[in-house]
Design goal:
mainly alpha; Herpes Virus-1; 2 domains; three-stranded antiparallel sheet; 3 helices; binds zinc ion; Znf_RING/FYVE/PHD; Znf_RING
């Protein structure tokens, strides 16, 4: 009689222990899962912040290729080797304009640069690298400036 009760009690204790163990494992794995989710979310958030910070340098914020085509450009010849608009060098690569160089002049501020230099800049930022005026602003009387004939 007494031993029968003892066996039942032992079984109950053992079942309880197994249940406790299973619950413990479940709890631990849930914690690990939650931790991974939290870390993943934090990573995604910081990644978004970095992308936002770098956004102003990403292609897409600047001018489109159509806008670039609308900006007047000219080729340095021996006659105007000094450069149009009073400039005698490109502020982006710091090289002077040589005959044959294809240059672009920004209508808003009349600053001129090598086309290859300023195009690379303008696809990232629509502002003049020298004076920060908006290079994408469309000039109403662009007929006075020669359009790009080399597009
Ligand atoms: Zn240049
Ligand atoms: Zn400028």
């Amino acid at each position: 009689m007494g031993s029968g009760l003892l066996i039942i009690a032992t079984r109950i204790i053992r079942a309880g222990a197994i249940t406790a163990l299973i619950l413990l494992l479940l709890g631990a794995s849930t914690l690990v899962l939650l931790h991974m989710l939290a870390v993943g979310r934090a990573c995604r958030q910081s990644l978004r912040a970095v992308n936002r910070a770098a956004g102003f340098l990403e292609p897409g914020n600047g001018l489109s290729s159509d806008d670039l085509d609308n900006l007047p450009c000219f080729e340095i010849s021996t006659q105007n080797g000094g450069g149009e608009g009073g400039a005698d060098g490109c502020a982006l690569c710091l090289e002077s304009f040589e005959p044959g160089d294809r240059c672009r002049i920004l209508p808003a501020c009349q600053h001129s640069f090598h086309a290859r230099c300023v195009d690379r800049w303008l696809v990232r930022s629509p502002f003049c690298p020298m004076c920060r005026s908006n290079a994408g602003r469309r000039c109403s009387d662009s007929s006075s400036l020669s359009g790009c004939a080399y597009g």
